[in-house]
Amino acid sequence: MKSKPTSFDIAFRAGVSQSTVSRALRNSPLVNEETRLKVQAIARELNYKVDKNASNLRSQQSSTLALLLFEDPTNDDSLINPFFLSMLGSITKACSDKGYDLLVSFQQMNDDWHAEFEDSNKADGIILLGYGDFVDYEEKLIQLIEQDTRFVRWGAEVESLPIVSIGCDNFHGGYQLTEHVIMNGRKHFAFLGEASSHAPEFFDRYKGHCKALTDNQLSVNQACQIDAISTEDSGYKAALALIESGEPFDAIFGASDLIAIGAMRALQDNGYQVPEQVAVIGFDDIPMASFTFPSLTTAKQNTKLAGELLVDSLIKLIQGEPVKTTLMPTNLIVRKSCGS
Amino acid sequence: MKSKPTSFDIAFRAGVSQSTVSRALRNSPLVNEETRLKVQAIARELNYKVDKNASNLRSQQSSTLALLLFEDPTNDDSLINPFFLSMLGSITKACSDKGYDLLVSFQQMNDDWHAEFEDSNKADGIILLGYGDFVDYEEKLIQLIEQDTRFVRWGAEVESLPIVSIGCDNFHGGYQLTEHVIMNGRKHFAFLGEASSHAPEFFDRYKGHCKALTDNQLSVNQACQIDAISTEDSGYKAALALIESGEPFDAIFGASDLIAIGAMRALQDNGYQVPEQVAVIGFDDIPMASFTFPSLTTAKQNTKLAGELLVDSLIKLIQGEPVKTTLMPTNLIVRKSCGS
DNA sequence: CTGAAAGCGCTTACAG
DNA sequence: CTGAAAGCGCTTACAG
């Protein structure tokens, strides 16, 4: 491996000083057009690239963002939630559009977790995606704030903390989905997913769901809210528990598509017809939602826009501009699983 | 934002020299146990983190790998091939297991493409995933070799170049799938996907497919090989073209799951029963393959193992150890779309 | 518009 | 085992 050329090599060949090379390569207006062109030509010829470690060290910024993806440690380690995978895709694209590099890391929530990336100057800021239990997570967030780390997160607004969150309007999404199914004549709903402060997004969906019920003179059956995390397996088990409970139901709201898909399978394995006997709805609109049988009615979270908003917000934060928590609307996607 | 502590701050507080701090933090055996503990305690207290830009600059290595994901520019820009998304997930995990950071970048093949990452010392090596047309891509690979860039790629072996490729045994996978469908009594196959040196992986699958046909005394109908790129849409159109061609067929081999899924939809939209009239098989085993109706018989590429192999191989390459091109076996996953 | 010089925060010979 | 010093390759005041 031949050693890489430095700005001094360029300077020598161009017959100018190294400072001028540095300026020319960054298109500084301070440098003469002719000089600039000559320097750039030589740089291209030698296949010279600025050493990012040196320039970052000197200028104290890295043009790099870090994405920390937390997975629920209880989840089987081979699979990543497809919703997060879509987010990852859109964040990656948004970063390259903005000229930032993206450092990606998977974390377990139980890891010793100190926002290494920003502290070690590898990234200018951090995007947080996912978490296990929100109550545990919140402590970490407080640490980040104390360390003055610049970060944005995907999720529901955290009213108690000065944090920039980008998320969907889970309440309204839950309301809209439920209302749609009510219009189709269903009366006895079950909700599969944790509905507590440990999972604020699910909780908001549940609150919207309940509001739609009471607005339509239907009652909420507490016994039909069964905890589940966002995996197919967990949805399957929750639906099984629902069936065994003996409670009557003609509609299931899965707090996420994965839960809904698992629930649908549990229903079918136990002889229930979907949607004839039981309507099923999910949340997220992951790619496979359109391929299930029957295809899944759900609330679409726009991952493309979400990725762009996360990246834009973080860059503004880094540049010291004010940034606000944003709530994006969801789209009701009507397919076959709810009987209309 | 309070300014970050440096190794000099630690040195001052610990009453030792900055060199000693540097050694202590990297657990150098040269430093006294007691000194080391004291230094580390102070570092923790001040929440000190080594500045990566400085240490990388000095030590000339970054403990960072770059993943370049190329997408077919003809593809709709909102979607990333789910197969690559799985690979991305497993590569990310493999990197963190090995203590490397991962820089992720999406590229368009038509971009000015110079392996910036390694040249600018941001990454020690590069993983290449995907490409548009192999013939164009090959030129880029030659450039990389000329620049002595350390990289590994996902894909079929390139015999003509000294490149480390990690890929699946596409030939055998294609053979096995085809043989399975032949055993179920199908005789007239169509192959949807480009089968030429522009797409070596698809070509290998096609060759395995053809070999299985001739080994079983069936003939290959050239008119039934129709080009398609790895998208649902392209598969849909290719199947339409097949239908319009008037050629007889009772089985379709989609060169990827996405193609097969598109083809299945085209068949169903045109009144064909899958698998009763036409058996359909795919390749990859992307997550949605098990959710299609009917569920898709396919050859599974083990993305978890693939990610680990890519990362391990690249790290060995960086460390100057010999690395060989590896072919991983595929797994035949029999589901409902092939009628057995 | 250009150059000489300082310095970003580390790691690593070198000397003791 | 420890410290003083050099230097990684840039960017950026400062002076002209």
UniProtKB/TrEMBL annotation, chains A, B:
InterPro entries: HTH_LacI, LacI/GalR-like_sensor, Lambda_DNA-bd_dom_sf, Peripla_BP_I. Residues 5-59 form the HTH lacI-type domain. GO terms for molecular function: DNA-binding transcription factor activity; transcription cis-regulatory region binding. Keywords: DNA-binding, Transcription, Transcription regulation. PANTHER family: ALANINE RACEMASE, LACI-RELATED TRANSCRIPTIONAL REPRESSOR. This is LacI family transcriptional regulator. It comes from Thalassotalea euphylliae.
